[in-house]
Each structure stands twice: as structure tokens, then as C-alpha cells.
Specification:
Rossmann fold, alpha/beta, 7-stranded mixed beta sheet, 38% helix, 352 residues, 3 domains, single chain, DNA-binding transcription factor activity
């Protein structure tokens, strides 16, 4: 016959303390002397006792579980972000429960089930919810924190890179390198990341004389790279001298299409810039110039927002914007030496 699982009562008897002292010993921040906590831990180890997290959640009204809804796991930026976020949350005694939202699906329909879970908070990245669902989550006491997304929902907190500033840095850099015929390959049109990057890029170019900008939809879809490349260069007019893609994945795929399908050289015939600074951007085959998101700082800020909203439910939501840096590599060349400023860009990193 199997032995019955030891209970908190067994631990209390062995340690010579009350049952409530056992509960406090396993609750971070609870009031209990170090000597008493040590006796409880020693007794628990002797008995092989593990605290029942479900039972504890009924008392504390916290589970230590943070829901994470993500819509795009194919982009290495998000896999890196999720790994770092999980690692940091575990250090704070929280754990992630992953919910995937298929591309272009209605996240509200899929996330309705999330409300039925006993979550301490819900994190959204590469997906969004409507103000209606946001209000329902708030009613249930589930705070919402967005990462790499911004929102007009004043009930949610968010942390993101300053997309508009970053894209404007890309625009100014390309102009300094002498490029005058530019193109912007957009992501999914209604996402905050694309809206802000497009706005920053176009606003920075609006007052520059002699600059033209083609706009083409890429939908953050690497499979569209060939059709995008052909649309940009299969015409009577000369194609762009430089292309800014709304993320690195599109930029890398576009570079392949330009080289191997259209026989164009990067950067001799056309320069290419991305956004995110994912690991493959530094590979020798690409050497992609890109705007690097401050992922470590974003994760740290997000964890602080999560802890703040969970520990102080009445705390006001906050929106945090962080600036990254332009990383200059070999995918951008000098187009018109006579008009280009070839000096180092003030915010650029050393070539990788």
C-alpha cells in the first residue's frame, strides 16, 4: 500500500508549530521568524511534504500563474522574449501558462476561455484584445500587461520599444547614406508595431527634399517576399535604392528573394534594413542592418509591471516606452557619395 501524502498538520506537529505557521513559512513575505521557518522547512523535508498550491490559492487568492497569449511563435524575437520573460518570472515565484492565438484569428473568441482560469495576470504579445474583453478581464480582477504592443485601453499596462523613434532613426540613416528612392514594407496594417514604425519612418522623410517612398504590404509574412520583391522592381520605373522592412524576418526573406530570384546585389544594387535585431540578422550570409529592440530592458520592465499589478490591484496602469539602438551592418551601402554623410551614425552600434 502506498503511504498517504504528508499534510501541513503533520509538518506542524513535527516542527512544534501551529498549522498557520506552516502556511506562513511557505508564503513569500509572510510574517514568521527565521528560526521558526527553519524548523518548518526541516520538518517538511523529513516528511517529504510539498505545499498544495491549489489549496494555498484559495486562501491567498493568488495562484502564481501568469497567462501569456502569443500569436506569432515563428519570429525568433518572440521566442527569445518568452524565454527571458519565463526566466525572470520564475525568479519572482511566478510561472507562465501559454495560450496560442492562430494568425489572423479573433483573439477575443479564443481568449474568452482564459477568463475561466485562475490567473494572477494576463500578458499579451504579438496579439491584442478588444476593449470589451479588456473590460471583462478587469471585472474578474485579472490585470493585463502588453509587451511589444501598445493600446489605447487605459485599463491595461504596456511596455514596448519606442517604435516611432526607432523607425525615424532608420529613415535619417538611409538619407545620410545618400538614398533617395526608398520603400517601406509594412507589417500587419492594424498592429500597433506597424502603425508606429510606419509613422516614424514617413514623418522623418516628409521634410527631406527629393525623397520618394514606395509603400507595400508585407503582413509580417516571409512567404510574401518574392511577390514583394517583384512588385518593387518589376516596373517601368527604377526600383528603390533602399528598403526598410517592418521586422527582421521579412527583411531576411526579402534579401534572399532579391539575390536569388531577381539577381540583385545587397547592398550594391539595393540596401535593406530590418527591425528587431534577431540573432540571424548577424549571420554572415545577411549582415543585416537593423534597429535593435532593448529586449532585456523590456522584459525587466514587464516583470515589474506584472508584480506591481498583482501585488497592488489598485495600482494605476502604466505605459512604458524604451529606446533601442541602430545596429549598422553590411546590408546598407552608400548610394550617392557626393550627397551622403558617411560619418558614423551617433546611435549606431559597431558593425557586428
Amino acid at each position: 500500500m502506498s503511504r498517504p501524502e504528508p499534510t501541513s498538520t503533520d509538518v506542524a506537529q513535527l516542527a512544534g508549530v501551529s498549522q498557520s505557521a506552516v502556511s506562513r513559512a511557505f508564503t513569500e513575505g509572510a510574517s514568521i521568524s527565521e528560526a521558526k521557518r527553519a524548523r518548518v522547512i526541516e520538518a517538511a523535508e523529513q516528511l517529504g511534504y510539498r505545499p498544495n498550491l491549489i489549496a494555498r490559492s484559495l486562501i491567498t487568492r493568488r495562484t502564481g500563474i501568469i497567462g501569456l497569449a502569443v500569436g506569432d511563435l515563428s519570429n525568433p524575437f518572440y521566442s527569445q522574449l518568452i524565454y527571458k520573460l519565463s526566466e525572470k518570472l520564475q525568479q519572482r515565484n511566478f510561472h507562465l501558462l501559454l495560450f496560442t492565438v492562430p494568425d489572423r484569428a479573433n483573439s477575443d473568441d479564443l481568449l474568452e476561455d482564459v477568463i475561466n482560469y485562475r490567473l494572477d495576470a494576463l500578458v499579451l504579445t504579438s496579439t491584442e484584445v478588444s476593449s470589451h474583453l479588456g473590460a471583462r478581464l478587469q471585472e474578474r480582477g485579472i490585470p493585463v500587461v502588453l509587451i511589444n504592443r501598445t493600446t489605447e485601453d487605459t485599463a491595461s499596462s504596456s511596455v514596448a520599444s519606442d517604435n516611432e523613434f526607432g523607425a525615424s532613426e532608420v529613415a535619417r540613416f538611409l538619407v545620410k547614406q545618400g538614398h533617395r528612392r526608398l520603400a517601406y514594407v509594412a507589417g500587419i496594417q492594424n498592429t500597433s508595431t506597424n502603425i508606429e514604425r510606419e509613422r516614424g519612418f514617413l514623418r522623418a522623410l516628409a521634410s527631406v527634399a527629393g525623397v520618394t517612398v514606395q509603400h507595400i504590404s508585407g503582413d509580417y509574412d516571409v512567404h510574401k517576399s518574392l511577390s514583394v520583391a517583384r512588385e518593387l522592381f518589376d516596373g517601368e520605373n527604377a526600383g528603390p535604392e533602399a528598403i526598410f522592412c517592418a521586422n527582421d524576418m521579412m527583411a531576411l526573406s526579402l534579401m534572399d528573394a532579391l539575390r536569388y530570384n531577381l539577381n540583385l546585389r545587397v547592398p550594391e544594387d539595393v540596401s535593406v534594413v530590418g527591425y528587431d535585431n534577431i540573432e540571424p540578422a548577424a549571420f554572415s550570409a545577411y549582415q543585416l542592418t537593423t534597429y535593435s529592440q532593448p529586449i532585456d530592458e523590456m522584459v525587466d520592465a514587464a516583470v515589474e509591471l506584472i508584480v506591481e499589478r498583482v501585488s497592488s490591484p489598485g495600482s494605476a496602469p502604466r505605459q512604458i516606452r524604451l529606446r533601442g539602438e541602430l545596429v549598422v551592418r553590411a546590408s546598407v551601402g552608400v548610394r550617392h557619395p557626393s550627397s551622403a554623410d558617411t560619418s558614423a551614425h551617433p546611435s549606431s552600434a559597431a558593425s557586428a
